[in-house]
Design a protein that fits this description.
The complex is a heterodimer. By secondary structure, chain A is of the alpha+beta class. Helix content of chain A is 31%, strand content 40%. In chain A, the strands form three sheets. In chain A, strands 2-13-12-4-7-9 form a six-stranded mixed beta sheet. In chain B, the strands form two sheets. In chain B, strands 1-2 form a two-stranded antiparallel ribbon. The chains are: A alpha+beta, B mainly alpha. β5 of chain A pairs antiparallel with β5 of chain B.
């Protein structure tokens, strides 16, 4: 009985602690514009505006991340001391599809800040690399570089602007570019407030990217009726080829 | 414009231009151009698997346009093309099995890269030297003819005598050669095996085979090669769409718009060029690809890891 009471007390204490640290979106007045990104025919990425309110003494970091995926990559190495080529496979399990960070000026050195859990370095605890090897730390850095080049991972230091709010509250705003290489799906936008060398609260909202119109129709056909999609693609290519031949002939271009 | 399967957006004009450039090369040389187009598309942010599959779809359009244009000029040997195609399909199937065995031994990538460079270097180098000699010879012959010297009958080579003894001798009127039906089947199989191992369409291997081993005239070679590539790429496009969902129709159409025009212009240019001039230009193209491959093997890569897939 006494033991059960202790367990209940610990659970209650734990949930109180969590409540103190995880603040709901409403508490930060977190808002995204747009909250849903529509990917149409001429979509070329969009600027996402993140706004909210935090205690005046806080600094914030924003993270946009996607769900984890398993990626099979090739390792490069020197063969025979001369030629660079693929020397083995490496799998990155649970690697976020997207990992974009925007920090306040005061949190520029994210690795050595209380919000270090948000940093690229913290991905080491999140991504599982197989097989294990002595060069895995280096390969993880290369992976992050590769994703950064594809515009899917990024860090923007000093990307948050503050404006005075009411009382001891201030407003923040950040603009984050959502690149066209971010595929449709659900992503998470998290905001962490840091004060007095600790994370005082976090808040998050979902960000949805969805294809609409022509891209949506093409994707649903490519995955839903793949054989017909392939056949139609071929027929259109053949017709386009024939049409162009006839066009050139009609223009008197033939010999 | 957004590419729904590639999951990225591209500048329409750039993709149109890329299609036009590679189509132009197809029209001149009778190659599909996948070895050139796929790396270019990857450079513009298209995933390797989508780039290769969509390029196949684009080649269907370009090779239809090119085959049609060459057919009108009387430059397609359908009989030879069908035999080479059958050989190519058999070779492709064997090649896929060979690559499985090579991968199991663990050094497939090394062998593929080395084979690629040696093949490209060998074929390109030989074509370059041979066509250079051909160009010089043409000039000398023209000089001799100009002083009314009697022509000397050509001596039959050991190669030609040897191949005359192979059964099933057939006359190919379009190409003007009489050889065994087994020869195009055999060489088609050989190119099919190499193309499957190297992960490319094989047009730039098939063209030299037709020129040097089957002794077909260069202009018929280009048209016949395009005819054969057309059917190979139809098969690849449908298979990729069905199995891997990697054909981006929007990307293929954008490329098509450029390549079908490019191939028409290329066909006209090819008609104006002498056979040896065509060969020497193709040799340069093959050697450039070879040097690029060599540089890729010798220079420190930008990244020590790479995504799988593509050519």
């Amino acid at each position: 009985m006494k033991r059960n009471f202790k367990v209940c007390f610990l659970i209650l204490l734990g949930s109180l602690f969590l409540q103190l640290n995880t603040v709901s979106a409403a508490d930060f007045h977190l808002a995204l514009s747009p909250a849903t990104v529509e990917i149409g025919t001429f979509y070329n990425g969009v600027d996402l505006i993140v706004t909210g309110q935090v205690p005046i003494a806080s600094e914030i970091v924003i993270r946009v991340s996607g769900e984890g995926e398993s990626l099979h990559l090739k390792k490069k190495g020197k063969v025979g001391g001369l030629l660079w080529m693929n020397t083995g496979d490496i799998i990155f399990h649970n690697a976020p599809k997207v990992y974009k960070l925007v920090t306040a000026s005061a949190l520029k050195d994210l690795d050595n800040s209380p919000a270090r859990e948000f940093s690229f370095a913290a991905l080491k605890n999140r991504i599982e690399m197989l097989p294990e090897g002595s060069d895995n730390d280096f390969l993880l850095k290369e992976f992050i570089r590769l994703k950064t080049k594809a515009n899917l991972y990024s860090i923007t230091p000093d990307g948050i602007s503050y404006s005075p709010g009411e009382g001891d509250i201030k407003s923040f705003q950040a603009t984050l570019h959502i690149p066209p290489s971010m595929k449709q799906g659900e992503y998470s936008v998290e905001v962490a407030a840091v004060q007095n060398d600790s994370v005082t609260g976090t808040s998050s909202l979902p960000l949805v990217l969805k294809q609409v119109g022509f891209p949506e129709k093409i994707t649903s056909m490519a995955f839903g009726h793949s054989l017909w999609y392939g056949i139609i693609s071929v027929i259109i290519a053949v017709l386009a080829g024939l049409f162009m031949s006839l066009l050139f002939k009609d223009n008197g271009g033939s010999h | 414009m957004y590419l729904p399967i590639a999951g990225n957006s591209v500048n329409i004009l750039i993709i149109f231009g890329l299609g036009g450039f590679v189509g132009f090369l197809s029209g001149i040389f009778g190659v599909g151009g996948g070895f050139l187009m796929t790396p270019l598309l990857i450079m513009f942010g298209i995933p390797a698997t989508v780039a290769a599959a969509s390029d196949s779809n684009q080649i269907v359009g370009a090779s239809t346009s090119g085959t049609f244009a060459h057919w009108r000029l009387g430059n397609v040997d359908f009989k030879m093309g069908v035999l080479l195609m059958i050989g190519g399909i058999i070779g492709g199937t064997i090649g896929v099995q060979i690559i499985k065995i090579l991968r199991a031994t663990g050094n497939a990538d090394f062998l593929i890269s080395i084979t690629y460079v040696i093949m490209l270097g060998g074929v390109g180098g030989y074509m370059f030297i041979e066509s250079l000699q051909g160009l010089k010879k043409t000039k000398i012959t023209e000089d001799i003819e100009s002083v009314d010297s009697p022509s000397v009958p050509k001596k039959e080579s050991t190669y030609a005598r040897m191949f005359k003894n192979i059964p099933l001798q057939t006359y190919f009127p379009k190409s003007g050669v009489e050889i065994s039906m087994l020869l195009p089947l055999f060489f088609g199989t050989l190119v099919g095996i190499l193309a499957a191992i190297m992960g490319v369409g094989g047009g730039f291997l098939m063209v030299p085979v037709m020129v040097y081993l089957l002794r077909m005239p260069m202009h018929v070679v280009v048209g016949t090669s395009l005819f054969q590539i057309l059917f190979t790429c139809i098969n690849v496009t449908i298979m990729q769409a069905k199995t891997n969902h990697t054909v981006d129709f929007v990307l293929a159409v954008l490329l098509l718009l450029g390549s079908t025009i490019g191939v028409q212009i290329g066909t006209k240019v090819s008609k104006k060029l002498h056979g040896d001039q065509l060969k020497i230009l193709l040799a340069c193209l093959v050697l450039i690809v070879c040097v690029k491959m060599m540089a890729g093997l010798l220079m420190h890569p930008d990244f020590m890891i790479a995504m799988k897939g593509g050519h």
